[in-house]
Amino acid sequence: MNICQKYSIFMVICQVFLNYGIIITMGREKLKRKLQFKPRCKTFTTTECNNEEVIHLLHEEMESLYLMDAKELYQADAAKEMEVSRPTFARILKSARQKITMMLITGANLKIEDKKDDFIVMIPSEEKSKINNSIPIAQYLHIYEIQKNKIIRKEIIENPVFQQKSRPGQILPALCNQKSINFFIAEVVGEGLKSALLSKGIYSYPTKNISEENICTLVK
What we know:
Layout (H helix, E strand, L loop, with lengths): L2 H17 L23 E2 L9 E4 L1 H12 L4 H8 L3 H21 L2 E4 L5 E8 L14 E8 L2 E9 L1 H5 L3 H11 L4 E4 L4 H8 L4 E4 L8 H4 L2
Parallel strand pairs: 2-3, 4-7, 7-8
Antiparallel strand pairs: 1-3, 4-5, 5-6
């Protein structure tokens, strides 16, 4: 079979696909990125500029900012965390920073997409069996992984703040980072701890009446 015959057969096959509505695509499907950051605030609106334009920041773009500027990782390490190549990560990060810059320059509104339906919560407790006296220096830390408003995993560890008699702001932010925590919930959260957690991209919720039954609703 010569090359002309092969080409003719290929064209016939393509025509059959087209006739039956079968789509031929040559591009690769976009790989799913690993997203750790859970946006708490998703919409930012200016009060001084009358600009109705909306800039959409993709979740993967927000993740790149979180890894580089909050966790202060190198690009190579951030790319591994996100499970993409380094050139791909660099492209995502560049796009994110361009959008943030345009928001600041033009006064446009910013909307962050949130495609992460799961998150991890840390709650301190004086008791191991249940949540009680939830203060940052409590003896235990209860960790819950939430997916689609349901607890799918629970872990209880000893609180190094209690063991080492240290300040929560010196210990808990790094530990939360290590455990991929998105939200820290306690009855009282001091401003120092709140700022230290936020610098790592972790949101804190000071609230009363914490229980396993209402964890999913506390961070709405």
